[in-house]
Amino acid sequence: MRILIVEDDDMIGDSIRQWLGRESYTVDWATDGVDAAATLRGTTYDLVILDLGLPGRDGISLLTEIRRDENPVMVLVITARDQMEDRINTLDAGADDYLVKPFNLNELSARVRALSRRRCGTGKPVLEIGNLCLNPVTHDVSLAGKRVHVTLREFTLLRILMEHPSKPFSREELQHRLYNWDEAINSNVIEHYISSLRRKLGSEWIHNMRGVGWMLHRQA
Ligand code: CA
Known about the structure:
The chain is built from 8 helices and 11 strands. By secondary structure, the chain is of the alpha/beta class. The protein folds into 2 domains: about 1-120, Response regulator (Rossmann fold, 3-Layer(aba) Sandwich); about 125-215, Arc Repressor Mutant, subunit A. It has a 5-stranded parallel sheet with strand order 2-1-3-4-5, with helices on both faces. Strands 6-7-8-9 form a 4-stranded antiparallel sheet, covered by helices on one side. Strands 10-11 form a two-stranded antiparallel ribbon.
């Protein structure tokens, strides 16, 4: 899942970025409303974590534009404004959830996971396909009840494939979801992670569609 944080407070923005980065999300950070709008027009995100009081442009106007453009990105608003009217206006403007500052980062993670489940349409905390299970909370992967040890990148890649089991992903899409702006990418890195996952899970799990990309192969 690729996330854009829009937050002008350095301490809050940096702590969210580090926290979610450790949870294996791919995270970018914009500190200004105008920059954020331009970024959202050029890059596809799964979730925006949006502060309302921003330099350049207010968060509500950004949210209104996201919805007017029919951008399907999920929006979690984080703000110090905690009047009931503010919460209602924010949700009515198209936010998917709302968190009042100061908040606990564990609660932020739980809300991000809940939004991710809603986006996948599973509603379930653990992703299960056949006898393959992935738990986004504990970061455990198991196959037929046996724990499979995966690296953080492998976990993220597998989660992307498991969230959309009938969708093929191109190398570019996977790179986009796995790496943020600041990371240099080796051109074979996706192939490397795919083959490593195949070794650990069994090659039948990830199907290579020539010229298209990779897809998780549903097992009966
Ligand atoms: Ca602010």
